[in-house]
Design goal:
By secondary structure, this protein is mainly alpha-helical. Helices cover 89% and strands 0% of the residues.
């Protein structure tokens, strides 16, 4: 009988598939974590730019009134 067709071979194939799935899942979670980090940095930059823009507009309007 063929070894690949036996119970032991089937169990080895299932274990190999589970390991491959876990590796893929770990890679996907790593990608999601990286994407969230980039998103947080971009939001921080946007907030910083918005505050700077508001300060610039307030400075300009104060210069016009004086």
């Amino acid at each position: 009988m063929l070894k690949a067709a036996s119970i032991g071979g089937s169990i080895l194939v299932i274990i190999a598939l589970v390991i491959a799935l876990l590796k893929l899942l770990i890679g996907f979670v790593g990608f999601l974590a990286f994407a969230i980090k980039i998103l947080i940095v971009l939001v921080f930059i946007a907030v910083f730019a918005a505050v700077g823009f508001m300060l610039f507009r307030a400075w300009q309007s104060r210069r016009k009134t004086d």
